[in-house]
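Quick one, tokens below:
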């Protein structure tokens, strides 16, 4: 295998972990078994990201729209997230991983909020990898919340509306602590963003694979990195000399 140069490794990778339900259905198992299997795939991805020198990994685990699923599935996902981070936090702390919950925490249970406050406080000083867990996350809510906070500051006379620019706006998003994603991976084959990182993905390279999330392993992650390394990021400019044709 040809090693990808470190310079071509994305600093921030975001993943839409999709396809758990289909994975289970294909095996005639209840959908929730796919979610359980998905946790194992997440652990593999976190370890791999750290080893490959990726600095930030943002994973979409529960969207603001996922509340519309059957109540038992929603409850299962709430419990699974709680159980997973309760169990894994010691290991994550030891591995130098900083964990951050990105999403609307206000409407999560008091128990979940407390778990995350503790997990974040315990790992705040870590720097090997930042793991953003997008749970109860929706880009539109995130953007509206940022707009509301800025408007409140302006109304209070603390902020001149003319001072609002891209950078200031980004500082009011859940992801203010990290750069925009370089690479966005979606498993399960759907060609859409499903309300994930709409602002932050303005110039992100997108990689979609048919592989269902529970089957997403190191080789597949490496294939995504390889595809990324071959992309030319232009940010609206003309191609670099020597890269045409
Ligand atoms: C993604 O898998 C996990 C969550 C949305 C929580 P799905 O549950 O959406 O799986 P599919 O897309 O139905 O296969
Ligand atoms: C996106 O997957 C959300 C997560 C992976 C957590 P969905 O399965 O909810 O997305 P849609 O409904 O196919 O767009
Ligand atoms: Mg899905």
């Amino acid at each position: 295998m040809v090693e990808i140069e470190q310079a071509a490794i994305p600093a921030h990778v975001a993943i839409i972990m999709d396809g758990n339900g289909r994975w289970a259905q294909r095996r005639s198992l209840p959908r929730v078994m796919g979610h359980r299997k998905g946790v194992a795939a997440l652990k593999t991805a976190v370890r791999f990201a750290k080893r490959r020198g990726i600095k930030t990994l943002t994973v979409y685990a529960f969207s603001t729209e996922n509340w519309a699923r059957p109540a038992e599935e929603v409850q299962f996902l709430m419990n699974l997230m709680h159980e997973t981070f309760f169990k894994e936090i010691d290991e994550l702390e030891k591995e130098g991983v900083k964990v951050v919950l990105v999403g609307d925490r206000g409407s999560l249970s008091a128990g979940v909020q407390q778990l995350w406050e503790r997990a974040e406080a315990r790992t705040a000083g870590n720097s090997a990898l930042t793991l953003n867990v997008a749970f109860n996350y929706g880009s539109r809510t995130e953007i509206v919340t940022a707009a509301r906070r800025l408007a409140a500051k302006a109304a209070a006379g603390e902020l001149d509306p003319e001072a609002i620019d891209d950078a200031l706006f980004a500082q009011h998003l859940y992801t203010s602590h990290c750069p925009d994603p370089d690479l966005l991976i979606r498993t399960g084959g759907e060609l859409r963003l499903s309300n994930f990182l709409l602002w932050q993905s303005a110039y992100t390279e997108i990689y979609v694979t048919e592989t269902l999330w529970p089957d997403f392993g190191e080789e597949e992650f490496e294939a995504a990195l390889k595809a990324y390394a071959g992309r030319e990021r232009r940010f609206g400019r003309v191609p670099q000399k020597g890269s045409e044709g």
